[in-house]
């Protein structure tokens, strides 16, 4: 455990924005899960074993009769396929973390990815322990929020219509944060343009996967120019 205490202490301030966001969207997930008749313990277990953010929101609708296993696989893949591309950009850093790399891959959410890419490791702290602390604390916030929401949803009856928008709001905040921090905003503009084009072609229900594929192709083809323009800002 040598060095972990300092790593967690140094990492915590960077995770405060995720703490505030994950508590609320975790609570929203817990409430939605409780409304399906499940105990808060199931919400906690799902946040511990699945930990898929928007995928968990989507999964709430899977626990109803008539939903096929193939539909579950297809929808989950469409919503969370972006995590594959996140992992590709961090393969080298995770490879150096030994056995902890398996948890780092599992815990790579949008918010964690953003922190791992933009946060500089403080002096006197080992990088692998610092990154591990960020990932572990972020998941703990999500689990705690899920538990609170599950308990509240079971004990306090209220209208939860629209509560799932909490996840969308968090994505918007992440996008704005990235936009404000980076000088070269070409990747963000390309992402918005690709999503808009695919939305017009495939519609609301089918544009996510084509958008991710198009964004990836464009970024791969223009990688050298983008890396030069961003002056080392890309996550490696």
Automatic annotation (TrEMBL):
The keyword Transmembrane helix applies. It comes from the Bacteria. Signal peptide: none annotated. The chain crosses the membrane at residues 12-33, 130-156, 192-221. Belongs to the AzlC family. This is Branched-chain amino acid ABC transporter permease. It is a multi-pass membrane protein. InterPro entries: Brnchd-chn_aa_trnsp_permease. It is found in: Cell membrane. Its main location: membrane. GO terms for biological process: L-valine transmembrane transport. GO terms for cellular component: plasma membrane. Keywords: Cell membrane, Membrane, Transmembrane, Transmembrane helix, Transport.
């Amino acid at each position: 455990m040598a060095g972990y205490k300092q790593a967690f202490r140094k990492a915590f301030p960077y995770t405060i924005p995720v703490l505030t966001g994950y508590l609320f969207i975790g609570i929203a997930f817990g409430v939605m899960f409780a409304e399906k008749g499940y105990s808060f313990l199931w919400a906690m277990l799902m946040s511990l074993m699945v930990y898929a953010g928007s995928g968990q929101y989507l999964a709430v609708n899977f626990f109803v009769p008539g939903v096929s296993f193939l539909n579950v696989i297809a929808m989950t893949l469409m919503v969370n396929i972006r995590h594959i591309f996140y992992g590709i950009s961090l393969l080298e850093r995770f490879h150096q973390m030994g056995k902890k790399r398996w948890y780092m891959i599992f815990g790579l959410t949008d918010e964690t990815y953003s922190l791992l890419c933009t946060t500089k490791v403080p002096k006197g702290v080992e990088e692998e322990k610092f990154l591990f602390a960020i990932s572990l604390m972020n998941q703990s916030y999500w689990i705690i929020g899920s538990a609170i929401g599950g308990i509240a949803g079971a004990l306090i009856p209220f209208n939860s219509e629209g509560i799932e928008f909490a996840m969308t709001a968090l994505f918007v905040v992440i996008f704005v944060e990235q936009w404000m921090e980076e000088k070269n905003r070409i990747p963000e503009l390309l992402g918005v343009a690709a999503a808009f084009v695919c939305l017009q072609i495939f519609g609301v229900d089918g544009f996510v996967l084509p958008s991710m594929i198009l964004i990836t192709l464009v970024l791969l083809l223009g990688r050298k120019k983008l890396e030069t323009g961003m002056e080392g800002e890309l996550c490696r």
